[in-house]
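Subject: design request, 129 residues
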């Protein structure tokens, strides 16, 4: 989880404080992907490793089965779990761009601004269909 404290973004993995996010090599290497990005003083961001999403879904299904929440009775909910899994497992250019934008914002605000400007200019150059 990310925590905003005194204007610095720090984060915890499995409850262990890993320090300031911009100094952590795991984020710079793209080991973790941001699933939700809300930056306010009390907001938290859940990071997921996309290779673990499939294992997580199985874990959720086992946990939910113990609570007698089965797919037959809750089709819409389990369909949502499948959609989340597919989103993170399907490596597309857009999803790589999402990761790069988030990582550049967390590590270097100047690079984030530069990347946004490149994206805006490419959108303006694209022919209208």
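Subject: RE: design request

Done. Sequence follows.
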């Amino acid at each position: 989880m990310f925590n905003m404290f005194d204007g610095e973004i720090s984060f915890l993995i499995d409850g262990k404080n890993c320090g300031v996010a911009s100094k952590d090599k795991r984020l710079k290497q793209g080991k973790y992907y941001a699933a939700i990005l809300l930056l306010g003083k009390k907001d938290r961001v859940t990071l997921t490793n996309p290779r673990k999403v499939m294992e997580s879904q199985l874990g959720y299904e086992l946990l939910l089965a113990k609570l007698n929440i089965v797919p037959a009775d809750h089709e819409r909910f389990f369909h949502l779990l499948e959609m989340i899994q597919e989103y993170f497992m399907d490596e597309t250019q857009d999803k790589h761009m999402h990761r790069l934008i988030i990582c550049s914002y967390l590590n270097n605000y100047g690079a984030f601004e530069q990347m946004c400007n490149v994206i805006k200019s490419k959108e303006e150059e694209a022919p209208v269909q």
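The helical segments are 25-28, 53-66, 75-89, 93-107, 109-125.
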